[in-house]
């Protein structure tokens, strides 16, 4: 099967971005969008219309995932380390590497197994929420997503929603690498935002890392379908003897360390980047 020209261009861009050390820049082309305005997003799903769309689109997403698995377009090999979460009570931030539009699937599977009565919310980029069209747009806007925003007032609404869900006892998935790099296996430097949310709400961080392997099946763009293994690395707690700023840095560095160790353990090679070689 001929490989997608667009996807080959994305892979080339990822190589260039790595050489330049620009790990937080999206390699895929983002949709154009109008910035979100205050009051435009029903973050807490209080409106009846929001609740109905949420139920319907969560059902659609579930059907889509099952259809992908049935068509040999999605494989989940294993979830490792679930025992680390058995005693975790209340809300938490979940962090993971970001390499596919639907790479939340292994994590949502884990959450459904452990906490079927609790929700998992996903923090997404503003351009995905406001600009994506078709099926992806419907899913991004109406499932359990929390869009970030450029506007300060909207961002305040976003932060209040995050705090509300955490104290309600829900779990929130965030991608601290910020950008999505398609099927990129290495962990990338993390941004502080995810850990700032955790520290401000005094909630733990569930550090995760997803590893991949090529399967014998090809995807619709001519590349091997990836089989995922979700590794739950550890539950990280803010320290009472550290300041807010120190806690953010501590959680971020600890998360990066765990991801690096897991990458090197699973793939059997030291973690290095092309920008360091130069």
What is the architecture at the second tier of CATH? 3-Layer(aba) Sandwich
Give the total of beta strands: 7
Q: Helical stretch count?
A: 9
In N-to-C order, the SSE pattern is HHEEHEHHEHEHEEHH
Indicate the CATH class.
Alpha Beta
Shape: globular
**CATH topology (fold) name:** Glycerol-3-phosphate (1)-acyltransferase
- Quote the beta fraction: 15-25%
Terminal CA distance reads 35 Å
Major sheet: order of its strands? 1-7-6-2-5-3-4
Largest sheet: 7 strands, mixed
Cα-based radius of gyration, to the nearest Å: 18 Å
**Number of individual domains:** 1
The parts where pLDDT drops under 50 for at least 5 residues are: none
Helix percent reads 40-55%
Computed structural class: alpha/beta
Describe this structure in words.
The chain has nine helices and seven strands; from the N terminus they run ααββαβααβαβαββαα. By secondary structure, it is of the alpha/beta class. It has a single domain (5-28, 37-277), classed as Glycerol-3-phosphate (1)-acyltransferase, CATH 3.40.1130. A seven-stranded mixed β-sheet has the order 1-7-6-2-5-3-4, with helices on both faces. The protein is globular, with a radius of gyration of 18 Å.
Keywords:
9 helices; alpha/beta; Glycerol-3-phosphate (1)-acyltransferase; 278 residues; single chain
Quick structural gist:
It is built from nine helices and seven strands; from the N terminus they run ααββαβααβαβαββαα. The chain is of the alpha/beta class and about 280 residues long. A seven-stranded mixed β-sheet has the order 1-7-6-2-5-3-4, sandwiched between helices.
């Amino acid at each position: 099967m001929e490989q997608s020209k667009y996807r080959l261009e994305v892979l080339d861009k990822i190589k260039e971005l790595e050489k330049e050390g620009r790990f937080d820049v999206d390699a895929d082309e983002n949709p154009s969008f109008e910035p979100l305005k205050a009051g435009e997003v029903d973050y807490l799903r209080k409106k009846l219309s929001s609740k109905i769309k949420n139920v319907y689109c969560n059902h659609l997403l579930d059907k889509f995932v099952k259809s992908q698995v049935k068509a040999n377009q999605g494989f989940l090999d294993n979830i490792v380390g679930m025992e680390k979460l058995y005693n975790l009570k209340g809300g938490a931030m979940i962090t993971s590497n970001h390499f596919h539009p639907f790479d939340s699937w292994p994590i949502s599977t884990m959450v459904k197994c452990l906490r079927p009565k609790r929700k998992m919310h996903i923090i997404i980029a503003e351009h995905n929420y406001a600009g994506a069209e078709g099926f992806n747009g419907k899913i991004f806007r109406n499932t359990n997503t929390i869009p970030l925003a450029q506007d300060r007032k909207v961002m305040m609404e976003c932060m209040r929603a995050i705090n509300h869900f955490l104290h309600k006892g829900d779990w929130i998935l965030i991608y601290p690498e910020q950008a999505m790099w398609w099927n990129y296996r290495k962990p990338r430097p993390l941004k502080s935002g995810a850990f700032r949310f955790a520290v401000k709400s005094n909630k733990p961080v569930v550090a995760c890392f997803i590893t991949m392997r090529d399967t014998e099946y090809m995807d619709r763009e001519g590349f091997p379908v990836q089989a995922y293994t979700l590794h739950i690395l550890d539950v990280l707690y803010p320290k009472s003897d550290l300041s807010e700023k120190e806690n953010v840095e501590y959680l971020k560095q600890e998360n990066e360390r765990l991801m690096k160790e897991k990458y090197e353990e699973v793939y059997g090679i030291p973690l290095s980047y092309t920008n360091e070689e130069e």
